[in-house]
Design goal:
- By secondary structure, the chain is of the alpha+beta class.
- It has one domain (42-204).
- Helices cover 25% and strands 34% of the residues.
- It contains seven helices and twelve strands.
- A hairpin with a 4-residue loop joins strand 8 (146-148) and strand 9 (153-157).
Length: 205
């Protein structure tokens, strides 16, 4: 496990109640420093969740919408990676059926115009893993990424012909009754290229 994931794992475990470590953990100063350090590491967190402890969720929005950002608007966000494409039916003079995008009605006008990259999906018919992660086909197709189950990553061949893990899905053991945690990361070099091409920026919620 690399340094980024080690830090996330440490910050997501609750220390013993009443201890000095617990007091520091509740104040969240270490977590703020963790977030501030994200721009300096080689991997970008797209999604991180440990039930009842930690939630980080990245969405993309057009750069002009956050230059400068509308803080009041962004404070009203309400979305998560379990949002997906759906079928919307509207009734008026004439019944209309259309596709509803995943970032529809998020509570933020800025995020409503954004792009969802990580899709968390569930299907009871999957015997091996009921819950799993998909990554936007716009990104995976454009950069030639393919899901490799044994590596739990979206991969491609690098310049030397070696398999390169670009988007990783890391599962953490469950904490008591809270269930397992999950982190999705992407190589910064690939992600930065995608942001430049699409003229978007990453919002970490």
């Amino acid at each position: 496990m690399d340094i980024l994931l080690e830090q996330f794992d440490r910050l997501s475990h609750k220390p013993e109640y009443g201890s000095k470590e617990y007091k520091n953990w509740v104040e969240q100063d270490d977590f703020v420093r963790f977030l501030q350090a994200i721009p300096t590491v080689t991997d970008v967190i797209l999604y991180a969740s440990v039930p009842y402890f930690t939630f980080i969720y990245g969405v993309l929005v057009p750069e002009p919408l956050v230059t400068p950002p509308d803080i009041d608007d962004l404070h009203h966000w309400s979305c998560n990676p379990f949002s997906s494409w759906g079928i919307a039916i509207s009734y008026g003079k004439q019944k209309k059926v259309s596709l509803s995008p995943p970032l529809d009605h998020t509570g933020s006008k800025t995020i409503d115009r954004g792009e969802q990259i990580v899709f968390a999906r569930q299907f009871d018919g999957r015997q091996e893993q009921r819950s799993y992660i998909e990554v936007s086909q716009k990104l995976t197709h454009a950069f030639g990424l393919h899901w490799v189950p044994e590596r739990e990553a979206y991969c491609r061949f690098d310049d030397r012909g070696d398999v390169e893990e670009v988007v990783r899905v890391v599962n953490f053991p469950g904490q008591s009754a809270h269930g397992e945690g999950r982190v999705v990361t992407i190589l910064r070099s690939t992600f930065d290229e995608y942001l430049v091409i699409t003229d978007q920026v990453l919002l970490l919620l």
